[in-house]
Amino acid sequence: MAQWRNGNGTLTVTDPQGGQEPEIPLRIAATYPARSRGLLGQDGIDGALLITPCGSVHTFRMRFAIDVAYLDRKFHVVAVHTMKPGRLGMPRLRARHVIESEAGAMEKWGLRPGAKVRIVQQEGDGERR
Fold this sequence. Notes:
It contains 2 helices and 8 strands. The chain is mainly beta.
């Protein structure tokens, strides 16, 4: 199992047809305080936030609606949902990681159930798949 650290990285949604795969800026929340804080107190996010390990999220005290993608251990997307502020998401038993972004962003990226994502953590940690 990969050891994730708080920090930055890039998210790429793998295109099975071999099309262009944009690199999306990513923040990584791997410690308990960072996972608990998430996107609370922010008015938006450029890119996405990876919360690991994580199987469910909530949007209590959030200021904006978010897209939530649940990923399994191999970074396949299990489910994608849009959540308004003040909601509690259902836990996903197969989920190991969660990606959050502003509502509507994941559709633009092609992030949907069945897709596979690649995450590269910056600062010399190498690629995690």
